[in-house]
Design a protein that fits this description.
The chain is of the alpha/beta class. It contains nine helices and seven strands, in the order E-H-E-H-E-H-H-E-H-E-H-E-H-H-H-E. Strands 1, 2, 3, 4, 5, 6 and 7 form a seven-stranded parallel beta sheet that branches. Keywords: Carbohydrate metabolism, Hydrolase, Magnesium, Metal-binding.
């Protein structure tokens, strides 16, 4: 099995940035996705360049400040509308434009993105969003975190993977919240070993004042401890698992 271990939220806070770099340099983390509309995105990119980290995708983000300011996407202050309202009112072409702006900003800063996914799985929230991200992925020839097995939107609509789309066989998203110990990690990976290419999502971080403001904070530190532990490194070696990134697709 080829296992992609991807950290979401690069660029959100300095603590998250430093934690992700630590997990790549001294742990088993193999990939990350960046939130280009966040205040520490440039800080993240500078760290990545300094450390030679290149496996960076775009964590498509529709919270806080919009980069494109599409009129159906934002309120009067340029802040994205809340998800239920956003999904109902957003124009699909403005959704695509926002995605392109986020991708292009990373490219303009000297990083070629490896793949796309979505903050809060926004790319799987509705068929409108899913179809938009698939179309933009085709334009940029980028894989998307979807998984070929049993995917539906949050409203229960079946997601049909188009023939052109590169994606993993399985997306493992259970490693989160109260399920981030070493035994959880090992159990989820063992469950996935019947597949060829699997992504396991994670959120490692050091804590800082901005990270502590997030509703998801202390478990990030546990994730960092697990992903950099000798126990997990030895487990992966013992199972013959190949740590990979989206370039294997």
């Amino acid at each position: 099995m080829k296992l992609i271990i991807n950290a979401d939220d690069f660029g959100r806070t300095r603590g998250i940035n430093y934690g992700i770099v630590e997990a790549i340099k001294n742990g088993v983390l193999s990939s990350t996705t960046i939130m280009m509309n966040m205040p520490y995105a440039e800080h993240a990119i500078n760290l990545a360049k300094k450390e030679g980290i290149t496996s960076i995708g775009v964590h498509l983000t529709f919270i806080e400040k919009s980069l494109s300011l599409g009129k159906t996407l934002v309120d009067k202050d340029g802040i994205f509308k809340k998800y239920p309202e956003l999904m109902k009112e957003a124009d699909i072409e403005e959704i695509k434009t926002e995605m392109r702006v986020q991708i292009d900003k990373l490219i303009d800063m000297g990083i070629k993105p490896t793949h796309l996914d979505g903050h809060h799985h926004v790319h799987l929230y509705s068929l409108k969003m899913t179809e938009a991200v698939f179309a933009v992925a085709k334009e940029y020839d980028l894989p998307v975190r979807v998984g070929r097995t049993g995917r539906t939107t949050r409203t229960g609509e079946e997601i049909v993977i188009p023939s052109f789309l590169k994606t993993i066989d399985l997306f493992e998203d259970r490693y989160y919240a109260d399920k981030v110990g070493a035994e959880d990690f090992k159990a989820f990976v063992e469950d996935a070993m019947i597949y060829d290419v699997v992504e396991l999502m994670c959120h490692p971080a050091f804590l800082c004042t901005d990270t502590l403001k997030s509703s998801y904070n202390y478990p990030r530190l546990t994730e960092l401890d697990v992903i950099t532990s000798d126990e997990i490194k030895e487990f992966i070696t013992s199972k013959g698992i190949e740590i990979a990134d989206y370039s294997v697709l």
